[in-house]
Every structure is written in structure tokens, then in C-alpha cells.
Amino acid sequence: MATSILELRHLRTLLALKEAGTISRAAQLLNVTQSALSHQVLALERQYETGLFERKSAPVAFTAAGQRLLALAEQVLPLVGAAERDLARLVSNATGKLRIAVECHTCFDWLMPSMDALRARWPEVEQDIVSGFQADPIGLLHQDRAEVAIVSELDESETDVDFHPLFEFEMVAILPLNHPYLAKPHLTAQDFATQALITYPVPDDMLDLVRQVLKPAGVEPPRRTTELTVGMLQLVASGRGLAALPLWAVNGYLERGYVARQRIGPDGLTGRLYAVTPKRLAGNACLLDFVQVMRETSLLSLPGISLL
Known about the structure:
two-stranded antiparallel ribbon, globular
């Protein structure tokens, strides 16, 4: 009997193509280059002497041969994942808590679906979000009050922790409908000088707009704060000021025409998120799986993000 060239990586590639919809997003999902993914598919097509999906289709449209291999992937990969998690449980006796600390008010839009996905995979691990907004979530790791911290900046002075890149996204200015700034190609720091800036009540070094744009330019606009994203959008919609938020966090409001958006700077303003874990838990299978789940769930559910 001939030996099959099929490997788990091939099946993962086909499943990623289905879930992500495009080669570029599937490559991000698998943490490989787009070229490497394309070569892998071509090798399969040469072996079976048939195409696996229609080129230039968006989302990916599989041929009959591709659908057959995809069906195999959908059967095999969940079984392999479950077996690997069972082995990790046998080795580590995985139980206990996974406490998560966040410094990002908008994190819950993607964090809750990630927690739901992890719960299905590790039902014996109790998950919890450390109550309230945390100005120093990494400090909670050192105090053994959390196992994961979600932060927006790398801090190289931090020791005894590991930083896991999650994703990057565009921060956009949120304006009232028909605001004159919408006629501009993009906003600069000076455009905020005379406009009230509506933010969450957090330190300035936790605000991408202030840290990356306004402070370097010496611009200090009048300020107003609110705890809730919806409150921020209501203030903007009623003409009380401008805000800066992740595009994925306000996409629904933009689609409904409640507020408008504008790019910040000619190349846009980029925000990033990282998961931080204690080095003492470096080998914790559930924790590592959670990092991967957060990356995968976010890429597949949030508009306009890229994995780091």
C-alpha cells in the first residue's frame, strides 16, 4: 500500500482556509508565511493531480477534491486536539483557576468569546475576570492574583513574565456625523487641540492617541471622561467632543450611521494587545492554549485586525 503524503499540517491548512476565508488570513491563523501556505497547497494538488479550491474566490470555494479533504480535516483535527488536551491533563493534572486581568475597557468584545471557546476545551478549569479595570494588571501576576494579564504595551523592564503577542488594529477618531473634519484626508495632533477629547478615566500612558500622537506634539486638548464605551459614543454623537477607539470596537455603530470615523495620521494609528503570563506557568498547557484561542477567535471575529 502506498504511503500517504497527508500530514496533520495539511489538514490544518485546509481547515484554516475554510475558517479564515482567504490565503492571507489563513496564513496568519497558522503563523506561517503566505508563500509557505501556498506551496503546501500546491504540493497536495500536484500529488492528487487536481485543484483543491478555486483561485481568486473570496471566500475560498473548495472543489470536490478539496471538500473531501476538508471533511477529513473536520473529523480528524478535533479528535487530535482532544487527545492532546487529555494527555496534558494526565501529565499536569490540570485543574484550578484561570484569572484574567485587563487594562482595556473594550477587551470584553473579544475576550468573552475566547473564554467561551476555552471553556469548551478545558471545562475543569474555572475562569474568572479580576473585578474592575486594572491600571497595573501585570502587578497582579506578581502578587499571584491573576494568571493572565491583557496589556497594550511591552514593558522590557518586567521580569519573571512572558509576553505573548495577540493582534494589532487601527485606532480611529470618532466624530459626530457631518463634522467638518470628515472632509480632511486624515487628522493630525493639532486637529485635537481645540476639541474636547473624550476618553476612559485611565492614565495617559494607557491611551494610544495621547501616548503616540498628542504628547509627542505637545498638544493637550480639553478632556472629558466616561467609564462606558456607549457613553463615549453618545457624547460624540451629541457633539460634545471627539474620541479615539479601536475600529473593531465601534464597527457596529459606524455601520448603523450613529457616529463617523476618521483616520489618525497619514498611515493610521496602530494599537496592539499582548497577553502576559508568569514564567512560573510557562509550561501550563491550558494557559498556552488560551493564548492561541484568543489569537484565533479574534482573527475570525474582529474586523480589520492582524495577528502579531
